[in-house]
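Renewal narrative, Specific Aim 1. Our central claim is that a sequence can be written position by position from structural information alone. The example that follows is taken directly from our test logs and has not been curated for this report. It begins with the structure tokens describing the chain, in the order in which they were read.
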């Protein structure tokens, strides 16, 4: 028994001796791996402090320069009175600093007529105000930069390219969410015409849709659902898509996850069944006119 105890103790001691270097090696590896992260964090912190210090220094210098110029206003006014300086670009900037807005608004000549006389209507001979000209020049520069950026260098994406990019992102998102959550995937549902389906669709409509569309679909906050005009399509699959995914920008709730596919198709079929019912107080038409949908089959 004593021999077994000694053997067990020796085995534990040997295990500790062997495990000690391995544990220390793992700790050293972890510390080595953490060093680049810590160094990057330290470098980022130092850079932020440097940028903050430079920004504060620039603001301080600008404030000191402004204070100095403010103290020099009497001298600057004498400089501004020099005719050659007053009409230069830096003279106009100096005038703005001194409170003279003539450089932007222009100088109106109320005693010089343009020489035009149309049925007794005359006008002063004044140019366009400088601020308008500067704005016009700015639009020219913007137009040139826009043309080069989007049509010459191809560094910017036009609306068609942005649309294709967004569609690709939507397809990737739909792949992650599942095919049933892809709003761009077409469906081939047919209108339900069985009385039980239409009765269930009516119940669901009254419970969930009547608050916005009225008890009889006449339209309240939402559009009238009994006429031939549709904002997002009046074919059953388009109505189903609107019910399922909603229209966030218009306040239309998405009913996916709240109603089953069968229930959403029942609601859509009921909506199409009340076409032409002409309820009292119907809301004015909205959207594009479409021919009334005709039931084709029972499901």
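The sequence written for that structure reads:
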């Amino acid at each position: 028994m004593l021999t077994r105890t000694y053997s067990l103790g020796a085995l534990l001691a040997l295990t500790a001796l062997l495990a000690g270097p391995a544990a220390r090696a793992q700790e050293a590896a972890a510390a080595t791996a953490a060093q680049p992260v810590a160094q990057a964090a330290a470098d980022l912190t130092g850079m932020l402090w440097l940028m903050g210090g430079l920004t504060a220094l620039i603001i301080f210098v600008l404030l000191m320069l402004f204070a100095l110029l403010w103290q020099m206003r009497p001298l600057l006014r004498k400089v501004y009175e020099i005719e050659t300086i007053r009409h230069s670009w830096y003279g106009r900037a100096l005038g703005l600093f001194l409170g003279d807005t003539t450089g932007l608004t222009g100088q109106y000549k109320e005693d010089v007529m343009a020489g035009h006389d149309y049925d007794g209507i005359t006008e002063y001979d004044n140019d366009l105000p400088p601020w308008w000209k500067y704005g016009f020049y700015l639009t020219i520069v913007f137009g040139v930069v826009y043309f080069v950026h989007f049509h010459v260098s191809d560094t910017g994406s036009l609306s068609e390219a942005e649309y294709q990019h967004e569609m690709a992102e939507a397809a990737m998102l739909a792949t992650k969410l599942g095919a049933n959550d892809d709003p761009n995937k077409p469906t081939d549902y047919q209108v339900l015409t069985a009385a039980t389906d239409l009765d269930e669709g009516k119940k669901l409509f009254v419970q969930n849709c009547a608050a916005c569309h009225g008890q009889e679909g006449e339209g309240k906050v939402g559009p009238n659902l009994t006429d031939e005009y549709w904002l997002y399509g009046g074919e059953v699959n388009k109505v189903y898509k609107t019910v399922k995914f909603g229209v966030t920008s218009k306040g239309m709730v998405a009913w996916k996850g709240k109603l089953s596919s069968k229930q959403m198709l029942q609601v859509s079929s009921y909506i199409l069944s009340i076409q032409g019912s002409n309820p009292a107080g119907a809301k004015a038409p909205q959207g594009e006119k479409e021919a009334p949908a005709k039931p084709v089959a029972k499901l």
